[in-house]
Structures are given as C-alpha cells and as structure tokens.
Specification:
The protein is of the alpha/beta class and about 425 residues long. The protein has 13 helices and 26 strands. The structure holds shikimate-3-phosphate.
Length: about 425
C-alpha cells in the first residue's frame, strides 16, 4: 500500500512567523495569502495583536498593517507564546529595543527550553532582559540598543534572527558571525522589505532602520510539513508523491539531498526565486534505500526532518549516522531520546553515541500495544506514518500536538494513502 498523488502543503511555518512578527518593525499594509494556520503561527498572531498590531482575515487572506516599531508596552504587555520557540525568541530580539515592558511566557515544554543564549548577545547590545535561570518566562524592559559584532556558535536560526532583528532598532550596525549556515528567511525578508542587510558567507551585517511591507506576499509551502510524505514515498514501496508550491530554500531542503543519496528518485522544478525559491518536488520509490552519513554542517538544513529521516533510516540497508545532532535535545522534547524510545519500541536498532544518532537497518517492524509522542508534533506525525507503513493501528498518545505545526496532516496522509 503506497503513498500516491500530489498535494499542496500548508504555508511555511518559519516564513509565516516572520511575516507577522517582522511587521512589528515595518510600515505599510500587506495582503498575505497561504499563511500557515497552525497553533504556533497563531501564537505569533496573538502576540502581534497584543502589541497593538492590526491583522484582519479576509477569505483565505490576512491583511496586516505594519506597526513601524511603535508597539505599545505600558504598563506591561503579557504575551503567551504557547508552544512556539520561534515566537518567543524572535520577539525577544524585536522587543528588546522597543518601548515598554513585556512578559513572555509559554507552555510546559516551552518553559523548559533555553533562552539564555538568546538573551546573552542582546544583553551585550544593552538590552534589559530577565529569564528564570536561562529559561522562560522572559521579562523585557525596552532599552536603547547599540549595534555589536558577535559570534554565534550555536547553529540556531532563531538565535541568529533575534540578534539581527534587534539590530534594526539599535544605534549603529550589527554584525553576526555564524559557524554554520542555517535558514535565512529573516535575512531574505529584510532585504525584500527594503532593509539594509549584507550577507557574506558566514557573516551577516544589518543597519538599523524600519522595513517597508510589500503590498502582497504569497507564502510558499512548508518543506518540514511536506517532508513526512516525501520521505514516506522514498521508503514505502511503489510510492510516488508530488509536493506543489514548495519552499525550496537550500537552507531547508537538506532532507531531499539525503533522500537522493539514499537512492530515492528526487526530481525538482524551480518556479521562482524571489523572495524565496519555490517549486515542485516529486519523490519516487526506487528500490530499498541505502544508509548514509549526515554531516554536522548539513544538520541545520534538515533539523526538523530528523525524526522522519530516522524512520526512513530504519528501512535502509546499513548504518545511517546523523553527526552532531545534540541540538535535538533542546527541541519540544529531547528528540534523540524520543526517537530512540519510540522507534526502538517498533524494533528499530537506534543508538545515541555522544552527540551522534546511529540507526541500523533494515528493520521488520514489531507493533507495540501503544506509542507515545510525548506531545511532540514532529514525533507524533513520524509515528503515524510509521504505523501506516507497518500496516498497524495502535494508539499514539499526544497526537493532538500535530496541530502545533500541521493541523491538516492526518487528512493529507489519508488522501495520499492508496489501499
Ligand atoms: C526555526 C528554527 C529552528 C527550527 C524551528 C524553526 C525558525 O530552530 O527547528 O522549528 O523558524 O527559525 P533553531 O533555530 O533553534 O534550530
């Protein structure tokens, strides 16, 4: 029973967050189509409105009025970021140079995630930020910021983006030097909205200044959501799946390069390049996959796809190695442990050695009485796909978390699954 057909994935979550949150620092009015309607993006929209932003739904479009940096923060704005790390981290950068007091909090999972590494460079810029021992809640008192030059060693786009966005309200230029390239949607949108930003390899420099919203923006489809079906097509015999209107940024499509190395047939047609590359991708099953090694510098380009790639690795011949994936310990759950426990419960041979994840395949699945996603949306979708592939139907705890990133996932899976 294969996955067959074509589908249009929901709007990209990372781009959707930025369209909303960066409108806080932009003037003008914009009509956005295809925005993601997931819980995480709705957390950004709620925050935008709490800060005085106007956003109105019209049919399937959202009309956003830019707030041009004049968000209201008196006596204090309380912002509930829910499960969304991107909302909290990008907002911390944006609000640090604003006026007022802001209290950012999140759910139980978000409260366990690191904020110190975001606060530290912002403190160097003169920000006034308090965390609870390096974790949320985060209290910000708007301050006059000065541009800095800093080095960011963690391969996190959220952290890089927080500093770049703070730079838009700082006095003087801000330069960020990163060790590894990560998703560059913030940089591209600043450029597209008329900001002064220069990217030179691993160095990004931004000048202060407000942005100008484009009149319209069409949100490309989310590769991290599409990945469940594209990766599924690579390892489930007789499958062929096409994703249309897909964001094809090099910084997000590492999983397609890995599937290609593992022997799947991957074909790609580029349709446009600005402000983001967009096109169509077809993945066709091409015989059993072979194991591969994923290097540290590839990890940011496939960070959210590791759970589903790990599932594919259980069906590949040989030992697949994901090098230096310790960032996964800091996600909604410790994803290294979740992958080991849950795929392990299905008979997969999974080892964690230092910061590396090793999976030896192929595995004939065994079916446990139940599985547990730990309320981690990407795990929940991976496990649903795994059970389909194993032709089994046992309960998975925590599948309501899927709405955090892809509310239409189960319906799309059913539509592509051919009996
Ligand atoms: C994101 C960056 C990544 C990714 C997350 C979204 C973003 O997190 O895992 O889902 O939109 O910038 P890190 O930057 O912490 O790696």
């Amino acid at each position: 029973m294969p996955l067959i057909g074509s589908f249009i994935p929901p709007g990209d979550k990372s781009v959707s967050h930025r369209l909303i949150l960066m409108s806080l620092l932009a003037q003008g009015e914009m009509t956005v189509s295809g925005l993601s309607d997931c819980q995480d993006v709705n957390s950004s929209l709620t925050a935008f409105r709490a800060l005085g932003g106007q956003a109105a739904k019209e049919a399937d479009k959202l009309i956003i009025k830019g707030l041009a940096g004049s968000f209201s923060g008196w006596p204090q704005v309380d912002i509930q970021c829910g499960n969304s790390g991107t909302t909290m981290r990008l907002l911390t950068g944006i609000l640090a140079g604003g006026q007022g007091r802001f209290h950012l909090d999140g759910d139980r999972q978000l409260r366990a995630r690191p904020m110190k590494r975001v606060a530290d460079p912002l403190l160097q810029m003169g920000a006034k930020i308090l965390t609870d021992n390096g974790r949320p809640p985060v209290d910000i008192e708007g301050a006059k910021l000065t541009g800095i030059s800093c080095r960011i060693n963690d391969a996190s786009a959220q952290l890089k983006s927080a500093v770049i966005l703070a730079g838009l309200l700082a006095a003087g230029p801000t330069t960020v030097n990163v060790l590894i390239l990560s998703r560059d949607h913030t940089e591209r949108l600043i450029q597209f909205w008329g900001g002064n930003i220069k990217v030179n390899g691993l160095q990004i420099s931004v000048q202060p200044g407000l942005l100008n919203l484009s009149r319209t923006f069409s949100t490309p489809g989310d590769p991290s959501s599409a990945a469940f079906f594209l990766v599924g097509a690579a390892f489930i015999p007789d499958s062929q799946v096409t994703a249309k209107n897909l964001l094809l940024s090099h910084s997000r499509t590492g999983f397609l390069r890995v599937l290609d190395r593992m022997g799947a047939k991957v074909s790609l047609t580029m349709e446009c390049d600005t402000p983001e590359p967009v096109g169509e991708v077809t993945v066709t099953f091409n015989g059993p996959l072979k194991a591969t090694e994923i290097q540290a510098d590839e990890v940011p380009s496939l960070i959210d796809e590791i759970p589903v790639l790990a599932l594919a690795a259980t069906q590949a011949h040989g030992m697949t190695i994901f090098r230096k994936v310790d960032e996964l310990k800091l996600k909604e759950t410790d994803r290294l442990m979740s992958i080991r426990h849950q795929l392990g419960a299905m008979g997969a041979r999974v080892k964690i050695e230092g910061d590396d994840l090793l999976i030896e395949g192929p595995t004939s699945f065994i079916i446990p009485p139940s599985l547990d996603s730990g309320h981690d949306h990407r795990l929940a979708m991976t496990l649903q796909l795994a059970l389909k592939a194993a032709k089994a139907d046992v309960p998975i705890f925590g599948t309501e978390s899927i709405a955090i990133s892809y509310p239409g996932f189960s319906a799309a899976l059913e539509a592509l699954w051919k009996n």
